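Good morning C.,

I know you're traveling, so I'll keep this short. The sequence:
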Amino acid sequence: GCLPLAMEQAGAFLRGKNISFLTYLDRYKERLNELNNFPAITGDFAESEKIDIENLKRRRSIFTTWSLNFEAIKQEHPAAAELLYLSSYLFPDEIPFQLVTTYPQLSGEILSEVLQVEDDTGVIERLTFLLGVIEKYSLFKSNLHLETYSIHRLVQDIIREELAKKEDSTT
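The tokens, ready to paste straight into the viewer:
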């Protein structure tokens, strides 16, 4: 289910930020309160998607931990955040590095600029660095040998929901 993913991401946040569990718990509770009106954790979402209460609780847990990790990634490297956004719209399993490196214009401005390198080795090194930033927070799993990475489907759903919310608030 989703709970092991939430626990994995919480542990990654603790390691990535080098903070105590109690500090993390305080941040988690603050974020949960901030997110109470977000569709992914409200009853309206549960009704529209026919999600039972247990699934809603799991979704709330993963959404809150993901949100903390995503904020940390945005602060650490904005291009990595744009890679997350792009990846939320791709098939989640074994995304080829080449897709991202060959078509950087599909991504955001910052990621596109970071990936603008003359040689293939340099662009793969930059992409690998960004994947490492994201992997540190357990949002991607990469396979350097096959030059692919994967993203959990629920993480994709939550990213797309956040993007839709941002778009709705600007219109």
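Safe travels,
E.
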